[in-house]
């Protein structure tokens, strides 16, 4: 990997800011996720997530990325050592990463790009690693029409490895009936916490929103990553083509060049509709294309 | 519209290419996975109508583009108005200088107005044109432009009537035979009603007839005929009125006889003709002027009837000829038949003949008297004897075998025309025999040789219907008073007013009176619709005023190459097609 020139110095490259497809070629999910997180944490000066409690419990050694406001200045003054204060509830943050494993997620516009699923896996692994490093209990759920994998939120050692294995063990599924899976998840997520959904959202918006709204109602902080391949945003292809939905038998014959503008409008409206609906219910919504560097995607959470 | 390269129009078949491509492109398209099909379906639902319209518009634009390019390649020539040169044209200019063109309207001779238009028409021709000039004499004069202009300049009002229908038909046939792109007939005439009222010109397709509309109508009266009777001259008038209505007006007529014959003196008389009330023209107006017939010596007399001068001078005077002669001394043999005897009785009562033997009417017997009128014998067995008697008198004609029945045709004896003959002998003449006066089925029926007149049939209703016809007595009158003496009828002909006598040896045997056709006196112009119908019909003929006539002349062949405009149009179409095709919304 070439060094990145910066202010006259040759710096090691930050893989969290590289093209996701190039990053994926470095190795498996673990390597990629660790590399991304290292780069990401080197680039930010505070932890992206905060706990909910204000009650001090103990000190721990300062780690790059910790917010300076939690630095204990008195200890620094006395012993010239860096410690940050930790609070009661901070260790009790429970994060669940929900990864859509439906067949539509296994699609990519060009072979050079990651599939939406591959992108989601790597992003989920990186996110889990960050959370676990903050000693936040993190779990994983993969689903298509059914809930495929459930790894409960833990903070103990080896949790990240379990999460990565859970991602690797989940095959590409069939159709998406996300609302059913999400409703089941509401029963699993009894304690309030952070819920991150990684999906292409190609399912019924109202039903899915109903489930997400329920999670929100239960006190969860919900973040939705709407993953799209760039080829899904801008229509292209042969002069005339029959496009088939891989999850159903629905197909349509179109001339992409003629329909490109109308399609782009439709996609824009759909994204806007998701964003508006999520905002209305206090759900964070982020539209992410699979050519967006992982670091940039993670930054959306800060 | 015509084309320089008409074969290029075969390329119009290429106009079907866009539609064919549209159909042929309906192949099975490749199939690809694409998860957000739901977005595609929604977009297509919203754009379906717009896309259909766009496809239709593109199809029309592409088809039109091909059509326009093919038309441009064929180099179309479109008709243009005003300016520009015309294609080579065959043109006949009919300049009607008949007597009616001598009328003065608004202080100007009608012929002068027509001459200006003719001058203009000839002036517009080019060296590539072929042109003829036709005057009222009906002669088609070809030649270079300068020669025809000189002819027009020297043309004066003539004495011959021009039948416009026939003139246009002849002219149209002439130009139609010319291998030139343009074919026109320019009719420069006062378009008298009488000149177009007879028939309809058969104008071939592709020939354009342009007629100059007549000017203002003027009233006119002229002398149509002069008939001499015992002791009186009957003068019939003709002419036209300007408008309907108005009271009857007396018209003074002067008649002079014997002018220029110092040996006979001159007789002059005046009368008043009354024009019919209601303004219906002069038709039917007549005046009878008494003449001192007793004082006129036997022989030929020449006279002239005259009216007061008016807008058309040509018909204000008309000469006439009249022969004053003593009644013939006639007798008929017993075999001449009862019908001849009855006719002679009538003529005797009318003092047209007297009893005598100067003229003998017989039936097969040897011709007696100085002059003889011989019918065939009733008995066929006597025909040979009768023929020998004729031959003995030196008559080169004889009766032959029986001829076929048929109608009589006689050029100079109008009363005989059409009368049926059921039985007859063929009249056979020796080599060089002449004097045929009437024929049946093309064979002589009435002949004259010297003082002998020979009939092919007996004047009997068993042979011919003539004795029962109204013209029988006038025929016998002409036979005994004129024909047997070798005198012809007084003929009339078109020409400058004058009388010409025909003579044989020292004898005057007939006269021809010249004058204008009486129809020339009626200056009533034809209605435009009538003129159009008579001169070729609505498709081929236009009657135009001077301004429009000048504009329309040669306009049928005034053409411009429209390929440039079509190419510009093709570029525009291509630009629009490009815009629509590349526009994605």
Our measurement of the CA-to-CA distance between the termini of chain B, rounded to an integer number of angstroms, reads 41 Å
- The low-confidence parts of chain B are none
Based on Cα principal axes, name the global outline of chain B.
elongated
Largest interface: A-B, 33 and 23 residues
Task: Explain what you see.
The complex is a heterodimer of chains A (302) and B (585). With 302 residues, chain A is an alpha/beta fold. In chain A, 38% of the residues lie in helices and 22% in strands. Chain A contains ten helices and twelve strands. Chain A has helices spanning 20-24, 29-43, 73-79, 116-133, 159-169, 178-188, 205-217, 230-233, 256-280, 294-299; strands at residues 4-6, 9-11, 56-61, 83-87, 94-100, 137-143, 147-154, 194-199, 221-228, 241-244, 251-254, 284-289. In chain A, the strands form four sheets. In chain A, strands 7-6-5-8-9-12 form a six-stranded mixed sheet, sandwiched between helices. A two-stranded antiparallel sheet of chain A has the order 1-2. In chain A, strands 3-4 form a two-stranded antiparallel sheet. Chain A is globular and about 75 Å long. Chain B has a nine-stranded mixed sheet, with helices on one face. Chain B is built from twelve helices and 33 strands. By secondary structure, chain B is an alpha/beta fold. The longest helix of chain B is centred in the N-terminal third of the chain and has 37 residues, at 37-73. In chain B, 26% of the residues lie in helices and 30% in strands. Chain B is elongated. In chain B, helix 2 (37-73) packs antiparallel against helix 12, helix 3 runs antiparallel to helix 4 (145-154) and helix 7 (338-349) packs across helix 9 (472-483). Chains A and B meet through strand 10, strand 11 and helix 9 of A and strand 2 and helix 2 of B. Strand 10 of chain A pairs parallel with strand 2 of chain B.
